[in-house]
């Protein structure tokens, strides 16, 4: 073959190689785009799809877990500052002046024995528990007056408990 033919073949080979290289670069870019589209599609398939207006969730699916099912009782301690027998409330003598609502489910104990709403007066030292409602209202769950159950004015809970078991 002549030098001219070889030169033409070489030029054509260079042009062909350049075209091949451009095609290869285009394929790599397209493959990158295709990979990105595939990853986004896979992520979209993994997400829940909702068609139409939003639906209210069932009570079963939104039910709180067991610890949150019942409101937790909050302990309190203090002296009674005010009593409202009509509204069945009492106010604790403290800076925040918490007002506790008495209900038919409130349990009263005085010196370890059942008591009533009328069994207390202003100035009595009390302890107990209350529940805080969604509206911010404090509802008394239990109220204890005087000594702890099982004691007779003593702060140790075992002082009279064994004696009660022997009798």
The number of distinct β-strands equals 7
> Percentage of helical residues?
25-40%
Low-confidence stretches: 153-167
CATH architecture identity of the largest domain: Beta Barrel
What is the number of independent domains? Answer: 2
- CATH topology assignment of the largest domain: OB fold (Dihydrolipoamide Acetyltransferase, E2P)
* Category by helix and strand content: alpha+beta
Strand order across the biggest sheet? Answer: 1-2-3-7-6
Secondary-structure element order, N to C:
HHEEEEEEEH
Query: What is the name of the CATH superfamily of the largest domain?
Result: Copper binding periplasmic protein CusF
Task: Describe the 3D structure.
The protein has a five-stranded mixed beta barrel with strand order 1-2-3-7-6. It is built from three helices and seven strands, in the order ααβββββββα. Helices cover 32% and strands 24% of the residues. It has two domains: 1-45; 73-151, Copper binding periplasmic protein CusF (OB fold (Dihydrolipoamide Acetyltransferase, E2P)). A hairpin with a 4-residue loop joins β1 (74-84) and β2. It starts with a helix and ends with a helix. The protein has helices at residues 3-46, 66-69, 161-166; strands spanning 74-84, 89-92, 99-101, 107-110, 113-114, 125-132, 138-145. The model is unreliable at 153-167 (pLDDT under 50). The protein is an alpha+beta fold and 167 residues long.
